Amino acid sequence: MAFVLVCPDALAIAAGQLRHVGSVIAARNAVAAPATAELAPAAADEVSALTATQFNFHAAMYQAVGAQAI
């Protein structure tokens, strides 16, 4: 049978670092959101408009999933 030894101080430090990582990711996502979710079509044709719409949709989905993950 294997035994696991745990150091509570090390766990507390690791938890604090993970909490910090989550807030950094949330802040970076908030900064990147306008640039990724407001993509303008590259040209005035239908394909460019549809492509921009797809990218904007995926950016919005990424932001929604990212908000749930943190």
UniProtKB/TrEMBL annotation:
Instruction: Tell me which Pfam families the record gives.
Output: PE (PF00934)
Q: Taking every annotated instance into account, which residue ranges of this chain make up the domain PE?
A: 4-69
Q: Could you tell me what this protein is called?
A: PE family protein
Q: Could you say which residues form the signal peptide?
A: none
